[in-house]
Amino acid sequence: MRIAVYLCVEMVGVTSIDVQESLENLAQRLRQAETATIKERLQVLYWLKQDNPPSISAIAKALGKHRSTIQTWLSKYRYGGVEAMLEIKKSLGGVRVIPQWAEATLAKRLQQPNHGFSSYGEIQQWLLETLGVEAQYHAVYQMTRYRLKAKLKVPRPQNSKQNSQQRSAFKKTLPMTLNY
Questions:
Q1: pTM of the predicted model as reported, rounded to 2 decimal places
Q2: Is residue 10 part of a domain?
Q3: What would the pLDDT profile of 56-77 be if each residue is shown by its tens digit?
Q4: 150: Cβ–Cβ under 8 A, 6 or more apart, which residues?
Q5: d(Cα 27, Cα 29) in Å, to the nearest integer?
Q6: Most buried in the list 62, 100, 143, 151, measured by CB within 10 Å?
Q7: Is-contact 147 103, C-beta < 8 A?
Q8: Are 95 and 147 within one domain?
């Protein structure tokens, strides 16, 4: 005895989706779209609502996307409507190794003129010993250099025999001498 099994398989380029919105509604939403991503997704629905809709492969080629991306969008539309299709989830990113409170404490320490650091390794050591925060060198460098926008500058040693009045007079006349 034979049993016939029929599978409903969605073939590549063929879609069995019924777009509920009208062409006018989709055209209006396309004009009001704020981002390119939303516009692309609405454009797919607009093309599929037309009397002679193009294939999924043709739509994908026109948008410069892979056909499986278009199928994913349509799957979201099928189960949640336009709002589900237009929803774009944002990644929260990774968890920071150095907590916010430690970063704020380091920022205060870097602002103090007499308590500088001579290297990022020294900052790494300070975080471990003072705050108990263990972080890799690269994480310390990224945080200090780019998020805190701090450069490690150690004041140059000055000779105690120098005359401070002569030094300040020299600093005042230096810009004038450089212009010549």
A1: 0.48
A2: no
A3: 999 999 999 999 999 999 999 9
A4: 107, 110, 144
A5: 5
A6: 143
A7: yes
A8: yes
